[in-house]
């Protein structure tokens, strides 16, 4: 009986891999490249043509992925960058976050 399930799983996996393919969608990519030897980091927002839309500099390395959140009004100029940064003794009680405006000025920071 187990062999029958195994055969069906193989066929389903084959069909899904054959017919489902990845596509590129119009949009933006937000990323923070980090080299282990350098201090600080920078976050970049790029479009599909690899043009840099905006960049933010940080004093600390990333602890996780940064996020863009919408502001009160529509438009990129009203978004905020949420940047979780690395600390020496991390705890889940108080995450360390920088909140940055599109111009790179600090809008807030968790303590």
What would you say this structure looks like, in words?
It is a single chain. This protein is an alpha+beta fold. The protein has 1 helix and 7 strands; from the N terminus they run αβββββββ. It has one helix spanning 2-19; strands at residues 28-31, 41-47, 52-58, 67-69, 80-84, 97-100, 106-109. It has a 4-stranded antiparallel beta sheet with strand order 4-5-6-7, with no helix packed on it. The protein has a 3-stranded antiparallel beta sheet with strand order 1-2-3, with no helix packed on it. The protein is extended. The model has no long low-confidence stretch (mean pLDDT 77).
Tell me the total number of β-strands: 7
Q: What would the principal axes of the Cα set say about the shape?
A: extended
The end-to-end distance, rounded to whole angstroms, is 58 Å
Helix content: 10-25%
Percent of sequence in beta strands? 25-35%
Series of H and E elements? HEEEEEEE
Number of helices: 1
Given as residue ranges, the uncertain stretches (5+ residues, pLDDT < 50) are none
* Alpha carbon gyration radius: 20 Å
Query: What strand line-up does the widest sheet have?
Result: 4-5-6-7
Q: Taking all residues together, what is the mean pLDDT? A: 77
Characterize the main sheet.
4 strands, antiparallel
Q: Which secondary-structure class do the elements indicate?
A: alpha+beta
